[in-house]
Design goal:
Length: about 250
Amino acid sequence: MSLGAIVVAAIFIIWLLNCIKILNEWERGVVLRLGRMLPEAKGPGLILILWPIDRLMRISLRLITLDVPPQDAITRDNVSVRVNAVAYFRVMDPNRMVVTIEGANYLYATSQLAQLTLRDVIGQVELDTLLAEREMVNQRLQKILDEHTDPWGIKVSIVQVKAVDIPEEMRRAIAKQAEAERERRAKIIHAEGESQAAQRLADAAKTLATEPAAIQLRYLQTLTEIGIERNSTIVFPVPIDILSSWVKK
């Protein structure tokens, strides 16, 4: 074999090795041929490209967890808060993502959009809504992010607000409000108990009024209870009517 044939064979082998690419199960390959994108992404598995005419870009389709940095915002009722969140998304259309986002840096683009959306949504809700209706705020964030990232070929599946930090003065005010609310409930429950007790006593009085012997039975039962306790004190009930007539005389 001549030297020229060996050189040609070596060049062919090098070219063939550069044309053979292996993509993992969770990867897709976006191929640019002379600057024009092929209609369909390649992979997974063994693929062939025309090197150096083709340029291969590997895009992962796995779910990505994005930690949204803490954002300083003002709620609708003018309360300063510091909120952070987490978002879960994945690339659904690699070709569209590569064409839309410069440098295919979809992590940075999604992160910036998530920060802006978080501040905007927090500014549209009140503090009580943010604290008590967290699920509603999460769904609103997910819907807005998904609508904006859909043209990029990205699907946002979940957005969760992790923590809400409020000023110390507002924490004390919320604690006082909660304490006052619990005192209000306690007073209402106590008043309802007094009302029910009065109603039961009124019912008992009506029963005793219709059955004169019930007074005597109740008196004997009270004496029995006092005797069980080994108490030397004996109580003799005197009807109120007798005392009233005696006072009048």
